[in-house]
């Protein structure tokens, strides 16, 4: 393998992982401060200015806490579950494109760790693994509350995976491809000469179903039944502490990043430039006198910035929803998944199929 290609692959893997793990402490800080703003409280404000170093203190606390294992736990699976929980969403992030490409000399660097023609299927495969660490953690802990949380989590994820899959199918009928890069390129069109052809405008029902399902798949409020504090203490990770609990904690936020990134890629133009950024590219090129390669590199950097801003918006909305809506009852969660979203997603697939067939 060419040395440059090897360096490129390693650099992209390190970059994606570093961004994900670097954003997690900021999300934790924003969630705690955001909840305080919403509820009229102060929030963390002692460790560093505005409490910005509080996540670092939390990491130090987790790191130095005792690594305790329940005596009756199945130790192999007990230790495997938190690792599995973090690996699945991190692996899914490698398929998502965060820009078009950079030009360095004679090399073209695609801003995606793994360019896969069937990228959507790979993401679904990794996302589908999220149910396993929940089941493994609950069962291996040998605790009744953990098992109840695991059963809730498995039931909830299975209930909403079908609706999510149908929502994906409806948008795949529009794009006609499984390649995420081609989906983003399709959304680079314009309706009426000015309106971006984002998937949410073409298939709003599919976007809504997919967005609601991501809350259930990531166990975020109002779908945090697997962790229901007031009912089953802490659910499937009740018996976890120190860094093992921290891995579950990180996995939830990485799953939030992955779900938001996928939402942006499928329905909100992906890495396509935000309105007004084309003029910014022209300004940068004219000021610095860049050639075609320089223009492409400037465009790619702003594409990453656009993608980052879109993903950040959806993560903020997920935090906002958590501190706005109360937790659903379990029967409400199941009824919403099977009696409302599933029939709606099925009807949406049929309607989109008829429309696409008529247009073709």
Can you walk through the features of this model?
This protein starts with a helix and ends with a helix. Helix 1 crosses helix 11 (242-267), helix 3 packs antiparallel against helix 5 and helix 9 packs antiparallel against helix 11. It is mainly alpha-helical. The strands form two sheets. A two-stranded antiparallel ribbon has the order 1-2. The protein is 69% helix and 3% strand. The radius of gyration is 22 Å and the shape is globular. The chain has 14 helices and four strands.
Termini separation: 43 Å
Tally of helical segments: 14
State Rg: 22 Å
Number of strands: 4
Quote the beta fraction.
under 5%
Number of domains: 1
Structural class computed from helices and strand pairing:
mainly alpha
Secondary-structure element string:
HHHEEHHHHEEHHHHHHH
Estimate percent helicity: 55-70%
Strand order of the largest sheet: 1-2
Given as residue ranges, the uncertain stretches (5+ residues, pLDDT < 50) are none
Q: Average pLDDT across residues?
A: 85
């Amino acid at each position: 393998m060419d040395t440059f290609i090897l360096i490129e692959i390693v650099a992209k893997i390190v970059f994606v992982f570093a961004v994900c793990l670097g954003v997690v402490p900021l999300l934790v800080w924003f969630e705690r401060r955001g909840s305080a703003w919403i509820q009229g409280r102060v929030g963390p404000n002692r460790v560093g200015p505005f409490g910005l170093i509080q996540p670092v203190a939390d990491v130090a606390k987790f790191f130095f806490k005792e690594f305790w294992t329940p005596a009756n736990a199945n130790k192999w699976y007990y230790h495997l579950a938190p690792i599995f929980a973090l690996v699945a969403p991190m692996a899914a992030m490698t398929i998502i494109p965060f820009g078009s490409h950079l030009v360095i000399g004679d090399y073209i660097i695609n801003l995606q760790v793994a360019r896969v023609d069937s990228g959507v299927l790979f993401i679904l495969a990794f996302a589908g693994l999220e149910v396993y660490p929940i089941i493994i953690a609950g069962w291996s802990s040998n605790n009744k509350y953990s098992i109840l949380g695991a059963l809730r989590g498995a039931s909830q994820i299975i209930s909403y995976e079908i609706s999510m899959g149908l929502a994906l199918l409806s948008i795949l009928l529009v794009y006609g491809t499984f390649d995420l890069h081609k989906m983003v390129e399709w959304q680079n069109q314009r309706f009426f000469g000015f309106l971006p052809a984002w998937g949410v405008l073409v298939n709003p029902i599919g976007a809504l179903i997919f967005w609601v399902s991501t809350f259930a798949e990531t166990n975020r409020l109002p779908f945090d039944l697997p962790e229901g504090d007031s009912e089953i203490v802490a659910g499937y990770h009740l018996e976890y502490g120190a860094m093992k609990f921290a891995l579950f904690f990180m996995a939830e936020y990485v799953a939030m990043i992955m779900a938001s990134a996928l939402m942006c890629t499928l329905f909100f133009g992906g890495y396509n430039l935000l309105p007004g950024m084309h003029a910014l590219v022209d300004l940068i090129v004219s000021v610095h006198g860049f050639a075609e390669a320089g223009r492409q590199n400037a465009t790619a950097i702003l594409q990453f910035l656009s993608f980052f801003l879109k993903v950040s918006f959806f993560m903020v909305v997920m935090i906002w929803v958590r501190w706005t809506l109360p937790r659903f009852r379990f029967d409400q969660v199941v009824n919403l998944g099977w009696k409302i979203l599933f029939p709606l997603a099925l009807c949406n697939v049929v309607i989109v199929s008829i429309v696409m067939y008529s247009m073709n």
